[in-house]
TrEMBL record:
It comes from Ficus carica. It comes from the Eukaryota. Belongs to the iron/ascorbate-dependent oxidoreductase family. Residues 127-146 are annotated as: Disordered. GO terms for molecular function: dioxygenase activity; metal ion binding. PROSITE patterns: FE2OG_OXY. Residues 191-292 form the Fe2OG dioxygenase domain. This is Fe2OG dioxygenase domain-containing protein. SUPFAM superfamilies: Clavaminate synthase-like. The keyword Oxidoreductase applies.
Length: 347
């Protein structure tokens, strides 16, 4: 006998009846029609942010053609031979571009990606690990591949459109928190936002690997386009079950990032998610990570804290946090990567 606990065979289901690690596409995550009455939309967004930290939007104003163009260029890029893609490979000095060795929580992800920022150049602190406040600044610049030649324009055009959408969403989120619509508009200045083209190739061991391991998004808000294959799973707040987000053509998936969790003093929470891969189909997705200027000190908003509800976080410098995260992608860490709970005030 091995060390395994012996289980009476009578308990064992035939394979087709075994519990799946995934609850099948529950209708849980709300779909919100942005063309409806604003008051109603604000209410729906507020309750989706509270209950799920995730929702989908339709009638969002991003032209289908803009999305079609980036989809096509994205597929053409990843179809190129590896040595071609590696011409725009990232390294410790060129942080943007192509790479296929990302780790999430120290396990390698089954994916390859291409990153570019909306602002070019993007300003970031020069010394991630140092104790200063990020006063010394360096820049990131985009690396565009020669092929396909249309990739750059398709990406830049898409970036402009999702940025408009995130501006709109931040107004609605502000209203849902009882704040003026323009409360977050200052954070669009000097932003460090970036877009990632994700390609998940078919995987021979989908039961053992993940496209992206469980994680929370560190920024303000994420606007994600996923294709029809599916694989994104969200951890349901009520019971910790992993729920698959059903692909909806032309919709965007929106999730609250860590910064909204801090700003709102946990009225809204950033929720864990992961990506499953499958052995037959490749999958593409495009997240836009809306992130503030590097010099932003992230802390609970004064309007949302008081004596009864004191700030749950100490202020942290966004640029330092972000560059520390990015630098860690190059190696396996012995310790946990930087997380907002490191700034949590204990109760
Ligand atoms: O591919 C997806 O559906 C989500 C990817 C993701 O969560 C991320 O890149 O942060
Ligand atoms: Fe994510």
């Amino acid at each position: 006998m091995g060390s395994e606990v012996a289980v009476d065979e009578a308990f064992i289901q035939a394979p087709e009846h075994r519990p799946k690690p995934t609850v099948t596409e529950a209708e849980g995550i709300p779909t919100i029609d942005l063309s409806r009455d604003e008051e109603e939309v604000v209410r729906e967004i507020g309750s989706a942010c509270k209950q799920w930290g995730f929702f989908q939007v339709i009638n969002h104003g991003v032209p289908a053609e803009v999305r079609r163009r980036i989809d096509a260029a994205d597929r053409a890029f990843f179809a190129l031979p590896l040595e071609e893609k590696r011409k725009v490979r990232r390294d410790e000095t060129k942080v943007l571009g192509y790479y296929d060795t990302e780790h999430t929580k120290n396990v390698r992800d089954w994916k390859e990606v291409f990153d570019f920022t909306l602002a070019d150049p993007t300003f970031v602190p020069a010394n991630p690990g140092s104790a200063d406040h990020g006063e010394e600044v360096s820049t990131w610049t985009n690396q565009w591949p020669e092929n396909p030649p249309e990739l750059r324009e398709a990406c830049e055009e898409y970036g402009k459109e999702v940025l408009k959408l995130s501006q709109k969403l931040m107004e609605l989120i502000a209203l849902s928190l009882g704040l003026p619509a323009n409360r977050f508009s200052r954070f669009f200045k000097d932003q460090t936002s970036f877009i990632r083209l994700n390609h998940y190739p078919p995987c021979p061991i989908p039961h053992l690997a993940l496209g992206v391991g469980r994680h929370k998004d560190a920024g303000i808000l994420t606007v994600l386009a996923q294709d029809e294959v599916g694989g994104l799973e969200v951890k349901r707040k009520t019971d910790g079950e992993w729920i698959r987000v059903k692909p909806t053509p032309d919709a965007f998936i929106i999730n609250v990032g860590d910064i909204i969790q801090v700003w709102s003093n946990e009225r809204y929470e950033s929720v864990e998610h992961r990506v499953m891969v499958n052995s037959e189909k490749e999958r593409f997705s495009i997240p836009f990570f809306f992130m503030p200027a590097h010099y932003t000190m992230v802390k609970p908003l004064e309007e949302l804290t008081n004596e009864q509800n004191p700030a749950k976080y100490r202020a942290y410098n966004w640029g330092k946090f972000f560059t520390t995260r990015k630098a860690s992608n190059f190696r396996k860490l012995d310790v946990e990567n930087i997380q907002i709970h490191h700034f949590r005030v204990s109760e």
